[in-house]
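Attaching the record inline, Q. Sequence:
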Amino acid sequence: VQIFASQQRSYRDLPIRYMENTTDYRDEKSGELHGLSRVRSLTQDDSHVFCTDDQLEQEVGRLLKAAKTMYSELAIALKFRLSYRDDSDAYLGDSGLWQHSQAILKKLADNNKLDYYEQAGEAAFYGPKIDFIAIDALGREWQVATVQLDFVQPQRFNLNYTDADGQAQIPVMIHCALLGTIERFLSVYIEHTAGRFPFWLAPEQIRILTVNDSVKAYVKEVSNRLNDVVLMKPLKYNELRFEVDDRNESLGKKIREAEESKVPVIIILGPKDQSVKKVSIRLNNKEQTVGLERLDELLLKL
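Structure, as predicted:
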């Protein structure tokens, strides 16, 4: 709000969009803390759009499309809730303004073909909102993304812009978070995937296991090949995250530990593999033997 108010704005400047990943702190009592779901130091992917009434539908549509695209990629089932005010005095602004903003929100939800339900008492203190509700592995519901309309705070902070006729107008403010509280989102997503993240998101994507010490040179050759893969399209600027487990332990134990760590790809190197320039690769608990060129193809596909 202060950045927007720092200079005179014209209708030609709008929409203006701000976004940051920001850390907030909340003095939760010890009994209120709950893993990653309720923490004292929380991070939000917080964004705000300042726009005209005429731009509202397009801007909300863009934000809803971004959220739906992201959760589709993450394969998380969602419900949509239109969160309205109730009759309490916990909200800013007069009732007429609220009725107007809630009607606009419902129209936007209909225009974007959301399958939603309506609930009073869940609005933010400054306006109604569309909440994305994720369902975790235990069937519990968690609010994640949210798109919120705010006609109240621009008025209270005396925000304005000059329209085409040179008249001062009050902008509409849209609050949006796609992940919401990132710590809470992670708690939902870890349960959703049972800890087995997709390849692109796994902290450790590949683990190379050795059968014995005779393959040390071959480990280096395979490691170099993994590093070379990132120079090919489409992974030119990415890095494959891999570790080498060359401990003097049984292969069975190494495989078991890699599986327990939910590493998506396990590469096994033994003397026979070294002699024929092949590797044994485990994907989703299924093992196959491939040549090094085929390994490149598999990793590029992943």
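The chain is about 30% helix and 30% strand. The CA atoms of residues 72 and 78 lie 9 Å apart.

More tomorrow.
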